[in-house]
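seq as requested:
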Amino acid sequence: MNLKSLARTLGISKTTVSRALNGYPEVNVVTRERVLAAAKEAGYEANPMARSLAVGRTNVFGIIYPLLASDLGDPMFLSVVGGMSAALEKSKMNLIIAPVSPANELPSYDKMVRGRRVDGLVVSRTLVKDDRIDYLIRKGFPFVAHGRTELDQPYAWFDYDNEAGIRLACQALLAHGHSRIALISAPLELNFAAQRKASFIACMGEAGLAVDPRHTRADTLDRRTGYQAMQELLACSPRPTAVIVDNHLSAVGAVRALLDQGIEIGKDISIIVWGSIEDSLVGSNVTTIDQPDAGLAGAKMIDMLSALVAGTPPAELQVLWQPVMLPGATIGPCPR
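struct tokens:
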């Protein structure tokens, strides 16, 4: 049964039937319930394309993503996307991921926004100074940032407390007597990496410890660069007695470098990783700063974006979740 037939059966106009099915407030409750009951009995389902045109929406949210090869095998990334997809399915909406090269990222945002191809966007891997967010604010286009930036304007964002997570790691290592603590970071133009490094330096300073510049390594976001960064730390004299890795993607390589050198992790050198990695990849029960349930985080961002599209002010959609420390076997007392 189509909309015209349903309207004829009920003896009311197609416009009224359409408005009742789409929840318009000007349709009274009695009429709406009558239309919904008749539609259910007749097995009527609205044409999603026609409905989208009627309300001026696509029923699609999107992510424009400078996809790295490592992302496709990253369980955390896949869990976040899975949580988003599951949340959208419940609302009979869809998610599209548009992989782009870094050089083509901002033009892709412009095409997506000008063409109104989606109702809203999730902006991933936010930068300290992020032109994408500045652009979307200027255009008045709905978005939720997965992470924060230095931009001093209200916008919707979801993030984990980067400062608190690194503080947990530092405090655990300091409590074991470590003073030569190193940090392996993602590229520092990424906001999470910048915040985590700033927290690391602050925590060390509060403990009365200066950070040896040789003991900080950045620009690691995969196994290869993580492996190389750890090799460079091991070549230092004196070398660090403990290492914090601020992302799980490079942590696999960092741990592997220790194992290849025959280093007993947790005894010769301690290590803490931000983000869960599969122990089968490294053969160690890794001490972790964990971001609880990435799937729930994905669903939360979709809820926030839906609220934004519905008219909730961006300043009311700023969510900061707390990371937790998961004990493991990779930290121990500072070797004498």
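The mean pLDDT is 89.
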